[in-house]
């Protein structure tokens, strides 16, 4: 019985009847509607989150920015972005409240460089969160990343092309993002811990954060 | 003050030989030849077979079946002597370099710090054994006396001045370091060892043998210094001639480690940290390969530097075999005071800095960047990306604008028919002074009805449209 208790306590085991009570380490995403559906009430900490999107400009980054901005302001360590598909635009990112001095933009063209760097970020203790645009990733390596993320309770976000949606993955949370309207996203939760897949979650994600002034 | 002075002389017996062949014992006879073809130094294996320094090389070859030889190089020997002085500088402040192979240390003033002679000598012994160089030493009440005792294999370690004085007595006249001509004359007078000489009235001796001898003798008894005072050089610059060509970068790690240990000694002696190192891999014919290694908040530890160098060497393909390694450090920073962390040894940002150093070493300087906003209103120039290592001081406050999150680096033309305009136009104009050309564009936030992307479109002055960014 105690093993069952332990597993339930640590969120490794959940029962269908009271799945919302399962404890998963998570941080609020900044979108209440989304938090209600995510185990633990936000982006998982100490785990990999995969976000699939067809092309840039569909809200895949805006979905993460409230959380990343809060993190960058509270934590003195680096927030490392790997291989952004286009040049990050500093005024736009600052508009979301990101502390730019905590951001590190890395280009790792070779896959082994990327994986090595990701792992190093997760185990070095000098990093608050990792965001990587990644195409093909080796499953064995993903597992290593997952373990590294778990050991330091860090969030890893992998932004990946839609075609990798069907392959199996160790990630704790897998989301597919598409846009209905400029500020209306449609999410599909492909996988979540302590919960079932979910179709058609509508989410309002504005083009700029609520508090920011409209001038610009 | 003069009463408490005590000198230690360390003579490195096989310094030049060990510089050439390394400090390990190979078991193969090793010979160091001087310019006239004589044996200058030889190792233990050669000594057993009867080779002696000063012997003709032809004679030596008759005694040996196989041997490794090298020619004597003063520069290499002197560099190594400086390195040893630097190492001993951790223990003793007043070191004098006595070419070609001796160091004279004033240890009397260090006794209080080390609480006695024995702890000090143990520490010195530890350091010397680590270096691997063969040595002999002796204390003396004057620098010259210590030198004479050491060179005569009298390893007297004592603070008792009477003992130190009497230890000189049995030394043969010819071994006192006086001119050979004088030694022969004194021998002819029936004087054999120093005690005989000491008994004679000095004035008479000066009358017979001249003032030079008197000066040399008085140096044995009265305080004086030897050689050049050792001072820490302002930059670190050392090289290693590799004993064989290295074709793969992995093979360089071991010799680099030696350089790094020497760097660590240097930095410890100067009480500072190095923040970047320059490694030159010198090839026989091609121009040298240069590697720059950066540690963000500076580092001293050889181990840390080695791991950073390793990361860079892993990716390095050597264009040609390496014959010589050179390591330089020119920029130093002071040892950070322990700020904020009273209990631990780390300062708060240590992990973040270490991570940055690692990423730079693996990915390269140009691949690890930080962002900042600029006051320039043109979107192309509004982001400044800087090498993360060069970042310094407090970041300036950021200028926030309601603009996209990602911008394409190259201009992509767009057709406005595919888009539904959400807001705009928003005009950005720079005057005629703007380089390279006057700038006037209208920007629109737009929605690609087919691709379902939210983008930023720019209408140029000549009427064509381009894609200026993505609201990712």
List the helices and strands and how they pair.
The complex is a heterodimer of chains A (216) and B (472).
Chain A: H1 2-9, E1 26-27, H2 32-37, E2 43-44, E3 47-53, H3 65-74, E4 78-82, E5 87-88, H4 90-95, E6 103-106, H5 111-124, E7 127-133, H6 139-152, E8 155-161, E9 173-181, E10 184-191, E11 198-204
Parallel strand pairs in A: 3-8, 3-9, 4-6, 4-7, 7-8
Antiparallel strand pairs in A: 1-2, 9-10, 10-11
Helix pairs in contact in A: 5-6
Chain B: E1 7-11, H1 15-21, E2 30-33, E3 39-42, H2 44-48, H3 57-63, E4 68-71, H4 74-88, E5 95-98, E6 102-106, H5 111-114, H6 117-131, E7 136-140, H7 143-151, H8 161-167, H9 180-188, H10 194-199, H11 202-209, H12 211-221, E8 228-229, E9 236-246, H13 253-270, E10 272-283, E11 289-299, H14 302-315, E12 322-329, E13 332-334, H15 350-363, E14 368-373, E15 383-387, E16 406-407, E17 412-413, E18 419-430, E19 439-448, E20 453-459, E21 465-470
Parallel strand pairs in B: 2-4
Antiparallel strand pairs in B: 1-6, 1-7, 2-3, 5-6, 5-8, 9-12, 10-11, 10-12, 10-13, 14-15, 17-21, 18-19, 19-20, 20-21
Helix pairs in contact in B: 1-4, 11-12, 13-14, 14-15
């Amino acid at each position: 019985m105690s093993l069952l208790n332990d597993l339930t306590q640590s969120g490794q085991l959940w029962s269908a009847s009271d799945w919302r009570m399962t404890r998963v380490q998570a941080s609020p995403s900044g979108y209440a509607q989304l938090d209600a559906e995510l185990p633990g009430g936000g982006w998982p900490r100490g785990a990999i989150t995969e976000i699939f999107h067809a092309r840039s400009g569909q809200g895949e980054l805006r979905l993460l920015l409230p959380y990343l901005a809060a993190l960058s302001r509270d934590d003195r360590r680096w927030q490392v972005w790997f291989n952004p598909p286009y040049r990050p635009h500093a005024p736009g990112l600052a508009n979301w409240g990101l502390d730019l001095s905590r951001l590190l933009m890395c280009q790792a063209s070779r896959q082994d460089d990327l994986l090595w760097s990701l792992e190093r970020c997760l185990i070095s203790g000098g990093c608050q969160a990792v965001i990587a645009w990644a195409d093909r990733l080796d499953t064995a390596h993903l597992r290593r990343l997952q373990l590294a993320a778990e050991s330091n309770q860090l969030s890893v976000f992998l932004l990946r092309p839609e075609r990798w949606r069907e392959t199996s993955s160790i990630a704790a949370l897998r989301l597919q993002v598409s846009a209905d309207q400029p500020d209306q996203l449609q999410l599909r939760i492909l996988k979540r811990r302590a919960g079932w897949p979910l179709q058609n979650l509508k989410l309002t994600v504005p083009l700029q954060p609520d508090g920011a002034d409209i001038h610009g | 003050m003069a009463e408490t002075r005590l000198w230690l002389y360390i003579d490195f017996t096989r310094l030049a030989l060990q510089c050439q062949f390394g400090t390990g014992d190979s078991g193969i006879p090793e010979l160091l030849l001087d310019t006239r073809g004589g044996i200058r130094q030889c190792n233990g294996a050669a000594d057993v077979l009867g080779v002696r320094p000063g012997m003709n090389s032809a004679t030596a070859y008759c005694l040996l079946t196989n041997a490794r030889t090298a020619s004597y190089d003063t520069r290499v020997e002197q560099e190594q002597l400086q390195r040893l002085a630097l190492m001993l500088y951790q223990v003793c402040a007043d070191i004098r370099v006595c070419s070609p192979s001796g160091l004279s240390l004033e240890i009397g003033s260090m006794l209080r710090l080390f609480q006695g002679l024995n702890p000090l000598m143990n520490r010195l012994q530890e350091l010397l054994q680590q270096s691997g160089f063969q040595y002999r030493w002796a204390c003396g009440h004057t620098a010259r006396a210590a030198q004479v005792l050491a060179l005569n294999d009298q390893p007297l370690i004592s603070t008792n001045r009477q003992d130190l004085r009497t230890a000189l007595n049995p030394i043969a006249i010819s071994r006192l370091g006086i001119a050979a001509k004088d030694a022969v004359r004194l021998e002819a007078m029936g004087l054999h060892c120093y005690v005989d000489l000491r008994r004679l009235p000095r004035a008479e001796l000066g009358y017979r043998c001249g003032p030079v001898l008197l000066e040399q003798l008085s140096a044995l008894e009265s305080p004086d210094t030897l050689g050049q005072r050792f001072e820490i050089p302002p930059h670190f610059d050392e090289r290693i001639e590799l004993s064989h060509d290295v074709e793969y970068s992995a093979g360089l790690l071991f010799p680099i480690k030696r350089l790094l240990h020497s760097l660590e000694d240097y930095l410890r002696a100067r009480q500072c940290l190095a923040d970047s190192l320059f490694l030159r891999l010198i090839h026989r014919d091609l121009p040298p390969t240069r590697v720059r290694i950066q540690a963000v908040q500076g580092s001293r530890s050889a181990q840390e530097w080695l791991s950073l160098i390793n990361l860079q060497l892993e990716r390095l393909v050597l264009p040609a075999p390496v014959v010589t390694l050179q390591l330089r450090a020119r920029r130093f920073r002071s040892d950070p005071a322990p700020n904020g962390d009273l209990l631990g040894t780390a300062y708060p940002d240590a992990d973040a800095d270490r991570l940055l150093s690692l990423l730079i070493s693996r990915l390269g300087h140009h691949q690890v960047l930080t962002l900042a906003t600029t006051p320039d209103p043109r979107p192309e120039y509004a982001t400044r990306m800087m090498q993360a290592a060069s970042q310094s001081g407090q970041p300036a406050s950021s200028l926030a604008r309601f603009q996209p999150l990602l911008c394409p680096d190259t201009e992509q033309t767009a057709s406005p028919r595919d888009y539904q305009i959400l807001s705009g136009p928003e005009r950005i104009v720079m005057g005629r002074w703007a380089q390279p050309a006057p700038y006037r564009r209208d920007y629109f936030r737009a929605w690609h009805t087919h691709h379902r992307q939210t983008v930023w479109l720019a209408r140029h002055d000549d009427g064509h449209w381009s894609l200026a960014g993505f609201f990712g």
